[in-house]
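Supplementary Text 2. Reproducibility record for the structural model of the 101-residue chain.

All settings were left at their defaults, and a single model was retained for analysis rather than an ensemble. We include the record here because the model underlies the residue-level annotations in Supplementary Table 4.
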Amino acid sequence: MNDHQQARTRLAALKERLAVHDSELKLEDTELNLEDTLLVTAPVNDAGRRFCVLVMCGPRADDHGKLWFWLHGPPEPHPLTEAERVIDAAAEISDALRSAL
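Retained model, structure tokens:
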């Protein structure tokens, strides 16, 4: 299995875990011409705002090319956790979105 296939597999596992962990989150594969990404959107808050994060899965150069989940955000994507740690990544994403509400 190549890196792209492994990344898609890990993102699918993360999507499944997020759906189980927090059913209020909206999960969708992106249509941004970015491969290996997942858009995670929180419900609308009391102020009428909706927060979302774009999660990517790709190699991390300073970890010998091992696959990691990355949060896409200014100014550059930043590493979240190793792609093998799906449960940890789901908890961190859910907590980050909830704290923004």
